[in-house]
Amino acid sequence: MSGATLVARSPFIRRVARRIAALTLLALAGCDSIAGTQSDHALWNALEIRNYDFVYEVGCFCAFDRPNPARVTVRGGIVVKIAPDSGIFVGKLPPASQYPTIDSLFAILETAEKNSPDGVTVEFDPTYHYPTRISIDLIKNAIDDEVTYTVKSFTPVIGSQQ
Description:
Strand content: 25-35%
Helix content: 25-40%
Radius of gyration: 18 Å
């Protein structure tokens, strides 16, 4: 095996290369050639955060029979637990899989931008680059069709798989 092959397979070298790529994207983020959503998504991916907790809230004129806001626990990139974040929730908790990860929020955002590009606003966390607020207005000038997804209290979990 050649030296180049060993370096390419080294997890440390791959992590360093991803971080260099993320820093390059950060430096270019102000350039017109990179859309904000794409650069923030790339920066989020480069951080490789797979274990984290956050508070998720949905704002809409819709029937929402789940805890809202809810504390979401993600391990290994999968939602493993949800719990009411405040107040009292009466009823059976839904499966954890019905709540999003940060990656699935990016998917919601990308779909909304394709389908309703003039009706989407988004704010990103400056440190971890996840969407803190996604507001979608599916039909301009229609009433009560808007939905807002909010992420608060994001906490990466370092060194734990629990």
